[in-house]
């Protein structure tokens, strides 16, 4: 059974005002003192962000427990320094990002200018193990049209600098300002993938291969494919649903490759439109169907995803979990819908942030 690991980026905020707090270095120092040798938490591009990574897990229930545990540990360490953590993909309140002390981050700021300073966004990356780079590329080529659906499920960034953006996932619009971000055409082979990465780095526009920010890529550190489209999810159970569906997509794609079934030939132009549609509306209106690239109601597209991955979900014992997760998601909505609902109830974006602090720990 394929193992899955999740990386989540959390926003550090003032528990009373909701304003982002540049305390990541202090939180990490507290972690080092309180739990020496623990390497779960890491700094990110800005000091208002804190990242954690789970261990590889084969059981989705165990993965969910670890995500909740890491979120609670992050909240505990932050709380002892007077701040809190929120699983928000963008800050609803205005913020002036503070760059972390790091030569790499300094290079980004100097090389890319303003777009770097607008990258205070929090994502959720899912790693799924693969047997080889060749299998990994076969998977990447075959999951491309399904990635916008994962984007829509995870969408959790409707607000930006104190305003409603009209998007469900505005984080994705900000993230795609990086020159290497977004969907890709089929690579066909691992050799062509690695050559493409080398050619991109050789242009000098990128610092190194870690800056190849494809929506899905071969991990530079682990024997995994890394799917990078999801916003950090407000609720931990949505993150588990994303991980469950991602593993099923990877396994289904690998099976199709072994059976000699060709990868979908959708153009990058169509994939960008599908991604925009998912980011703009989330689950509230239509998505582009991954098979036809024609619009269809979001619930129907999610049911198509369950059908597409049905055998893989059954084989891992996740079919009932995924079915329940999708049904519950359609009932309650994703993080973007919940944030807008909280705004109506709380009457202010500050109230949204403080309520989302509670939601983060579930």
UniProtKB/TrEMBL annotation:
Alphabetically ordered keywords of this record: ATP-binding, Ligase, Nucleotide-binding
* Keyword set includes Ligase: yes
Its Enzyme Commission number(s) read 6.3.2.2
Q: Which InterPro entries match?
A: GCL_type2/YbdK_subfam, GCS2, Gln_synth/guanido_kin_cat_dom, YbdK
Any one GO molecular function term: glutamate-cysteine ligase activity
The source's superkingdom equals Bacteria
User: Under which main EC class is this enzyme filed?
Assistant: ligase
Q: Which reaction does it catalyse?
A: L-cysteine + L-glutamate + ATP = gamma-L-glutamyl-L-cysteine + ADP + phosphate + H(+)
The keyword ATP-binding is annotated on this UniProt entry: yes
Q: A GO term (biological process) for this protein?
A: modified amino acid biosynthetic process
- Classification via SUPFAM superfamilies: Glutamine synthetase/guanido kinase
NCBIfam families named among the record's database cross-references: gshA_cyan_rel, PRK13517.1-1
Q: Which family does it belong to?
A: Belongs to the glutamate--cysteine ligase type 2 family. YbdK subfamily.
Per the entry, what this protein does is: ATP-dependent carboxylate-amine ligase which exhibits weak glutamate--cysteine ligase activity.
For this entry, the protein name equals Putative glutamate--cysteine ligase 2
Can you name the source organism? Streptomyces fodineus
